[in-house]
Write the structure tokens for this entry.
Amino acid sequence: MKQTFTTSDGIRLAYYIDDYTDPWKPAPTLLMLHSAMSSSKRFYSMVPGLAKHYRVIRLDSRGHGESEVPASDVPHDKWRLNKDVLELLDALGLQSTHILAGSAGGYTAQLLAIHHPGRVRSLVLLSATPGFRGDQGKSWLRESKTRGMRAVFGETIDERIPVAEADPRLIEWVLGEICKNDLAWLERFIGHWTDTWFMDDVSQIQCPTLIVEPGAHPIGTGAAFAEMEQRIPEAERIVYENGRHNVFDYLPERCVADALAFLKKHFPEERT
Amino acid sequence: MTHASHWTASDGTRLFYRYDDFTDPWKEAPLVVLVHPGLGSSQRLFGWVSHLARTYRVVRPDIRGHGKSEPGPESGLTHERLALDLIELFDHFGATRAHVMGSSAGGMIAGRAALRHPQRFRSLAMYAATAGIPPSRPAKGNWLERVGRDGVRKFLEETARDRIGDASPEHVRWYIESAEGVTPQFLARFVPLMASDDFTERLRELDMPIMLGVPDPDPMVDRSEYARMREYVRQLTYVEFSGASHSMTAEIPDACARAYSEFLAKVEAQ
């Protein structure tokens, strides 16, 4: 069920809680942060598997899904995205949480673990490097402005979901969801991430971290995943051979199984 | 997507359900209705949801007089009315047919509804549910008398072991609290209704896949009652859960839901 709260800069954000853990026992919390051009909704296929063991919270990032799109004069940067998450945790009375995040959601997740280590118990990073340096994101936006999002993301969808393997109806649905986004907001949101790279800081991540690397490296910097594993003290990395970027959309069962195995290994006391 | 909501049955009674749906948005996923036991509520079956909701649209109604559902008019509690509560719920979700699982009294309601509206049922599953209650059973435990005298809570506390076995104290407390909304006044109507009209032999009229999930041994039900049902079911899937107690759908939901998932997959593949 959708719930909302208002951030300290006045933006109404939507979030969802799904919880199928035993109600008579305390349950650990898992926060899901979605990628750019996405929403909580896109995590639907991962929820039942996770919510059996964790109280699952999904936040619609500002400007995405059911959350308000900030006006153009509202300042925006990565620190504001960090605050959105911290303010949600505060509103829910949560000192700390596990985080499972896809792509840009994983940029915020890493920055939270670096700068607010007490609030993050672990990270599961699906196709998330330390930022999105380079021209790729900027070119999507540039092209979308002239030719439309549908054309641009339709042509490049195989970078996100393997066209030869995946259900065409999934692809169609994901494309439809991508195109619901506000292009002016994406220019600010993605634009900021394309100017961000914090590889030098990831060594400060103290919590157990699972890096899921899409093996085909269609988006971003492929070599970054191995470097993250080197630098993050408690990191482990799984490569999905020939995997495309949006593993969270097209390999949900595999992502859930790997996340649960990782969490169980590092947090045996949270046996659920 | 999940939500919980009231809706209005055709006799004007406000009923309540919980809905959980994580199926692929481009698919028309089958509807599965999970009906809780008497002296319970939809909360009792929460443990089933994560096993089913990725593949099916899962609805858990509160039976009238239970949970957040109103009891309805005093004279209106009949087998037909309880059947319509289910069928109208299918309509509410735009489903011509549905799979229905009922636990204990919920299974009796589902079975009687299937006999009245067989064309609306894709399949029927009855867990720890007999096809009626022999008059001796509630009399044996003085159910109504005790509930009337002591209240629902005390009655459940005193019979918890037969119902939910060796569950932890916290689990038992939750079990009792999830009987919210049930009153002795309503049970005085509901229990005799459940005990009337044994439909064991009529099960043979049902030409649909039927699953019987049976706790072995059930401290509250004589084995012969389940054994008799087996004789009359034509398309039978029979699963025994050894060591389970009568309220097994709340005691061991994972094992129950896994067996039900397998049954549903088999039915859907036909």
The first strand of chain B starts at residue 2 and ends at 8.
